[in-house]
Amino acid sequence: MWRLLLALAAVINAATTSHDVVRSFSDPQAAPMSLFNHLVVDRITGRVYIGAVNRIYQLSSDLEVAQSIVTGPVNDSALCTFDCPPNFVKKPADNVNKALVIDYATSRLITCGSVLQGLCSVRNLNNISHDVREVREPVVANNASASTVAFIAPGPPNPPMTQVMYVGVTFTGNSPYRSEVPTVSSRSLEDDRLFMIARTAVTTGTRVFVNSLMREQYPINYVYGFSSEGFSYFLTTQLRGVGSDTYYSKVVRVCHDDENYYSYTEIPMSCTGEGGGNFGYNLVQAAFVGKAGSMLASELGITAQHDVLFAAFSQSESINTNTPSDYSALCVYSLKAIRRKFMQNIKTCFSGNGSRGLDFISPSHACIGTKLQSISEDFCGLDVNTPLGGKQPVEAVPVAIFKRRLTAVVATVTGDYTVVFAGTAEGHLKKIVVESATSAFEYGDIVVDERSPVNKDLFFDTQLMHLYVMTERKVSKVKVQECSVYKSCLTCLGAKDPYCGWCSLENKCSLRSDCQDAAKDPLYWISYRSGRCTTITQVTPNQLQRTTARTLDLHIENWPTLNGQFFCAFTALDRTLITNATMKPYGVNCTTPRTDSLPPIPAGQHHFTAKLSVRTTQGPDFVATNFTFFDCNTYSSCTQCVSSFFPCDWCVDGHRCTHDTAENCRNDILVTGVSRMGPSYRSGPGFCPTINSTSDGTNEILVPSGVKKGNKSKSSYNRPIYSPNEVRMPV
Ligand SMILES: *[C@@H]1O[C@H](CO)[C@@H](O)[C@H](O)[C@H]1NC(C)=O
Ligand SMILES: *[C@@H]1O[C@H](CO)[C@@H](O)[C@H](O)[C@H]1NC(C)=O
Ligand SMILES: *[C@@H]1O[C@H](CO)[C@@H](O)[C@H](O)[C@H]1NC(C)=O
Ligand SMILES: *[C@@H]1O[C@H](CO)[C@@H](O)[C@H](O)[C@H]1NC(C)=O
Ligand SMILES: *[C@@H]1O[C@H](CO)[C@@H](O)[C@H](O)[C@H]1NC(C)=O
Ligand SMILES: *[C@@H]1O[C@H](CO)[C@@H](O)[C@H](O)[C@H]1NC(C)=O
Ligand SMILES: *[C@@H]1O[C@H](CO)[C@@H](O)[C@H](O)[C@H]1NC(C)=O
Ligand SMILES: *[C@@H]1O[C@H](CO)[C@@H](O)[C@H](O)[C@H]1NC(C)=O
Ligand SMILES: *[C@@H]1O[C@H](CO)[C@@H](O)[C@H](O)[C@H]1NC(C)=O
Fold first, then answer.
1. What is the pLDDT of residues 260-280, one digit of tens each?
2. Is the dihedral of CA 180, 181, 183, 187 positive or negative?
3. 564 & 612 share domain
4. Is residue 614 one of the residues assigned to a domain?
5. Sema domain spans which residues (predicted)?
6. Index of the ligand 5 atom closest to the CA of residue 553
7. Is 432 a member of any domain?
């Protein structure tokens, strides 16, 4: 039996998982170590591209393979570049995808791999095996683990008209050629200069190097990159300074309209709160720039159009490593606050206060005070105090903390709510509502690919209704909601899923957009936060003798304002009977069906329960409750009768059970039922005229004593005996 139950539970579990995951893709032909590295979704066509070890895939939005190409292994040596002399020893090397970027302006897919010093290719978005152009320029990291972040945003020569590819790369010390690869650069997307540094002058250009003395000991790990309002940003983890052995997170920023990277600035970012250890959640692991729902936006002092950074952080596993532990936190920053913090740092230095910092780039010195009157948030740098490392951090407290390592973050808005989906190192997807700048709660956790870390590249489909969740060997298309599994208003709102609400006119849990007339009345689509369910709180009377009819008084809570005729429907034993309902302020009145149309009470039972619902002319049930029809006449013994859940009384003389003593028990001795309200002299089975079998085992007919109906009364009432003049009606 246990075995069966467990098996059933397993099936149900599997069913819930597969409900959320509508499609998945994995490549059975790929080598065991051929992991997926990057994923990108074309926001116009919805196509999905995957960069893997030695493979690039082009998939439909339903994850069907349209094209797959082999990119490795290739014979390679870190000690030479593309034109390796024949005498160099080359070994087959895996080509690990390090960057996968869509250039919408030219409809090209940019793919960069770890081999041949990290070069990039462009391909036709419609068919990635067409129009392939490989550019012999080292751009990305040339090993499997060193970080690379690449994205396209406005840049020189003529932003915002012209776009460049911003690239952040961890230095790999494995080759003399790596000194040519900047740690941060803007690269041209013009055909004749493809992937070259966008602008260079004698000593400056759109690039920054970690200085040659430091770069071996000062690795910078690039985590995420984005552009917002005239600037491009990278989130990084790095040492707290040259000579330090502890790590923290920093935001790196350059101005789009800056051919010299004079605007290059770094400031610390913190996500600190309770349980954050010595340094808080110091290592940023994944991030996403999106928008806030109206509630969060107003708390952050911004509008729904402004950018918001959602970032997942972990604590260092031990104090002097940048290996993340399982303790993580989610922090939310408005870009407005980040811009202001950059400006404050820049102002401080330009007023001559503190030192310029960043001596891992070039030796630091004291900030030079300038006569610059006003440095605005859009300040794009000058050839003094550059590059600049500010000390004042951009700060936030976690909105939520987890005993799981978050590895991916994406956010969206539904209604007024801000929803974050976060991938974990265990292959789960967490669903989180950010309710304010300091609080969020997790309302769901889906197993996507147990025990395989979720990749940072977490994307919505074009409709924002699914997420592509990539783990090491699998891409899953996951529904953002599954409202329809909730079958009642209470479970629907109880799920606290901001996508779901109770569509009261259609009696279903659904997206707002799937609920007819949702806009007409807030009670037509009830969301979890605003809402209490429309419920019948009281029916008077709440049960009825089947042989009678009454007007019922239904109190209904959260009763939407509705026009038109309403009906009460009584559904029981495969029969539905409809009666007219009259609207009143807090509910409806309706009569019970004609007694001759009600189904009979099933043999051997004393009642049936009907579903009593209120409905519109066409619509389904609006709200429902149970309503019981009972029949006292079905009880043949006093004990049963007066112990019943129903308001039944026993007429001793009449030897019958009845709901209406006034009508059926006139001048009779009465034992009132336990379910009767109010005081009574004789209530309950204790007052029934009970009779015991004779001790000799004969089966004689016995009648109540004190009543001259027979002449043979071997046993008698073991209770008080009543005479007719004592009869009292129940009150
Ligand atoms: C892409 O091009 C290749 C080679 O021309 C062709 O075999 C393949 O069918 C094309 N794929 C798609 C999805 O058009
Ligand atoms: C790598 O080089 C070996 C011999 O040097 C050759 O046999 C092999 O085909 C080459 N592999 C590739 C992928 O070019
Ligand atoms: C890649 O380079 C980084 C940075 O130099 C180094 O820490 C790491 O060990 C290298 N990984 C491999 C697989 O060579
Ligand atoms: C320099 O910065 C410190 C700390 O931020 C502050 O206390 C001090 O007033 C500043 N001095 C000037 C001249 O701005
Ligand atoms: C509804 O029924 C109750 C009790 O039967 C009665 O007092 C009330 O007047 C009725 N209201 C309407 C609007 O019919
Ligand atoms: C219900 O109401 C309709 C219209 O208001 C009326 O025609 C019909 O006779 C009523 N039915 C009953 C059973 O009262
Ligand atoms: C109505 O009755 C059904 C079955 O008898 C029960 O499962 C359900 O909880 C009841 N509903 C209410 C609102 O009491
Ligand atoms: C009747 O029977 C019950 C148990 O069967 C016993 O407890 C009770 O004493 C009996 N009453 C009389 C009056 O014999
Ligand atoms: C009692 O009833 C029996 C039959 O059940 C009858 O023969 C007898 O006469 C009756 N006695 C009296 C006193 O009525």
1. 999 999 999 999 876 656 668
2. positive
3. yes
4. yes
5. 3-480
6. 2
7. no
